Amino acid sequence: MLLFILSSFAFSSITFQPMREDLKMPANCVFLTSEDFSENHDRVIYGIEGAKKKGFTHEFPIQRQEARDLWQALNDDSQSIAVVRDSQKLSDLKKILDTDGRDMGFDFKKEGDVLEAFALLDLKKQYPDDEYFRTGGYEYHNERGPTVGELDILVGRRSDCNIIVIGEAKLGYKMIHKAHEQLSRFERFYRQEAP
C-alpha cells in the first residue's frame, strides 16, 4: 500500500490537460496521468499525400490545397464551400469532419485540425474502437510551470487508459523536423519529471 501511495506521488508532477471535449473518449480516461504514459509507446508522424517519401511514418490521402479548402469551408468561406461542393472527394471528407471531427471536439479554428482529425480516424484501422481510444490535443506541464507542449495524437487502451502511441500531424513536408522535436521534447520532459 505504501508503495502505491509513493508511486502515485512520484507520478503527480506532470499535468495533462485536454484542449477539446472529445465525445469519443472514454470518460474514465479523459484526465490522463503520468502513469498512463509509463509504458513504452510508438511514435507516429502523419502528413499529407506523399509524406511517407519525406520520412513521415503515416500519410493521409489528401493534398495540401485540399486540406486548406476543407478548413476554409468548415469556417464558412463561401469560395471554399463551392470548391468542396464541386468535388465528390472533398464533399465526402467534409461530411466526415462535420460528424466525427466535431464529435472529437475539433472546432477547426486551426488549419492543422483537418489533418489531426483524419489521422485519428485513420488510426482506427490499426487500433479499433472496441479495444482502443484515439484522441489528441493534450497540453502537458509540471505543477509549477507553464505549458511545455502539446501532443496531437494519442492512442490508448480502453481497459486501463495506458497510452501506447504518441504522435504529431503536420501539413507541410518541411515540418517533419519540428514533429520529431516536439515528440522528443515530451519524452525528455517525461523522463525528467516522472521518475
Topology:
Blueprint: H1 2-10, E1 14-18, E2 42-47, E3 58-59, H2 64-74, H3 78-85, H4 88-103, H5 112-122, E4 132-135, E5 138-142, E6 149-151, E7 153-157, E8 163-169, H6 176-193
Parallel strand pairs: 2-3, 2-8
Antiparallel strand pairs: 1-5, 4-7, 5-6, 7-8
Helix pairs in contact: 2-3, 2-4, 2-5
Please provide the ordered H/E string of secondary-structure elements.
Answer: HEEEHHHHEEEEEH
* Oligomeric state of this protein: single chain
Helix count equals 6
Measured distance between first and last alpha carbons: 19 Å
What profile does the largest beta sheet have? 5 strands, mixed
Query: Rough shape?
Result: globular
Q: Give the averaged pLDDT, no decimals.
A: 92
Comma- or semicolon-separated keywords:
single chain, 195 residues, alpha/beta, five-stranded mixed sheet, three-stranded antiparallel sheet, 8 strands, globular, disordered N terminus
Give an account of the 3D structure.
By secondary structure, this protein is an alpha/beta fold. Helices cover 37% and strands 19% of the residues. The strands form 2 sheets. It has a 5-stranded mixed β-sheet with strand order 3-2-8-7-4. Strands 1-5-6 form a 3-stranded antiparallel β-sheet, covered by helices on one side. A hairpin with a 5-residue loop joins strand 7 (153-157) and strand 8 (163-169). Helix 2 crosses helix 3 and helix 2 (64-74) crosses helix 4. It is globular and about 50 Å long. Residues 1-11 have low confidence and may be disordered.
